[in-house]
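User: Sorry, folds how?
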Amino acid sequence: MSLFNELKRRNVFRVGIAYLVVAWLLAQVLQLVFESFGTPDWAIKTLLVLLATGFPFAIFFAWAFEMTPEGLKRERDVDRSQSITHETGKRLNFMIFAVMGLALAYFSYDKFVLSTDRQSAAIESAMQEAVSTAGAGQVAIEAAPPVSDKSIAVLPFVNMSSDTEQEYFSDGISEEILNSLAKVSELKVAGRTSSFAFKGQNQDLRQIGETLGVQNILEGSVRKSGDKIRITAQLIKVDDGFHLWSETYDRQLDDVFAIQDEIATAILKELKAVLLDGTAALVTSARTDLEVYDLYLLAKQRMYERTELKLQSAADLLDQAIATDPDYAPAYAQRGIAALLLSVTSYGQIPHAESLVQAKGFLDKALELDANLAEAYAGMGLYYNGPPPQADKGMPMLEKALAINPNLINAGNWLVLLYWFNNQPDKSMALLDDITARDPLYKPAFGNRVYQLGIMGRTEEARAYIDSVEPFMPDDAQIMQTRAWVDYSEGKAAAGLKRMQAAMKKQPNDRVFRVGVNRGHYLTQQYEEVFDDKWSNLYVRALFYLNRNVEAYIIASELATGGNVQQLFALMNAMDQSDALIRYLEDRWPNLEAFQQSIPASMFGYREMADIALAYKRAGNQALFEDAMRRLD
């Protein structure tokens, strides 16, 4: 007898079909039950694995055993003349048809009854929530504002050169055109991060326009060959795909600045961007030698990656650019920013004081060469961002940078931090709203907006915001870390730490993630795991709880020398040295008014003044205690 016939005789095929049908129906029913009881996802996944694992065993038993009137026996022990496999096969056929009937009935019920009920319930729930929310005056339900015709996204130009390493050049050309357009106040220009997120994707322009909130898109290509360059550009209206304008430029490479200016100016004419004098804006770029410009563009692209290796490479390239053209202001500005980002408090290993000295020299030179250079003012704002932050000096610099070029998204994000330290949460939230509207996929502002919402107790809004962004950043470390900060805000320290550790596993060198893991260890009282992250105040506190007070005092004193007295004051009170705190305070500031002017409250509270109040209360100085308490309000 052939193997096929033997399998058929032993009902192996019938058992296999019966098993699959029963397993499918069982999985469907249990999934419905699990959803009703809120069972976690892993439970249904475990069930599916068990059902799949059972299939080969069912096949084996069908082959090796046979059902007889005396019960289950091994197939080789059954006399073929006494076998009842044909009767068992009939019973299996009946069971298969019966179960398939049940499965069909369940499918119909789920499709045409449960699905409709669920959809109706969802709609009704959403309507009730909308009415309730509006009634409470929390959210105004209104149509989304129409997108202005004077809005544009500059997609990264395609590199058509034979050398793929020239991609930085085509990206740089795109970014320079974007920055030129962004200087026109009446024109909304989508930010670089979000525009460049569509690089290499052949997506429908209407979808891109809807995502970025713009009515027009500029796309093009760059072909660089020897000393010649061809740039093609086309301006497209999002809603109907109509080409408003297109042009091809065949030039010598040393004409690249003129081409950028021509493209930007042509776009402004097509968009009828009317300025105060009633004419289209004429855009001009800073000029330099082509070799210097090439080095500058490559350096900027590397700086976006925010790793020590890439930042150091960018600094070296900018040094070469400055050596070749000592009068090219943008190179000095970016070199100053690179010096700050290479500080030990940021992404590098340069001592912070040394990085400040380096940066100040480059930034001062940039402003000496070009007093209206937005990049240089942005760099000065970062310089005053600290630690310790000097909001009174940094805010005017960053505000001026954004007045010149509103699309300097990094500058906007740095200004948010200074608003935080200067206790201006309304301004910081308004600026975050503007940044995320211009550049919705810019991760630092996305993370900072979630963080501020959490601090303000608006955690539900924060979660909803994360949910809206997550489809554009699936399985992204930034999504994990923002959800972790919301967990921390809600007192779910263990859950937050688990998320933050998963984020840091993806990006182990990210400073923000390291600070987040540090906070999780501190909040879960794993003090021995807390490390000196050079930014937060958690390490000093952890050392105190580990009874390593001498180490804590040395570090806190060093920080106080740099202007951050909060940790030293807190430590002195914790060590019952409030009298030492008062001496330290009165030796350096004539009164509390002077201290408040020097170190004002931040969005995170006024911990320094709270520690001063506690010290004076312990010392029995009621007048100064009350003075400090008044300043806490």
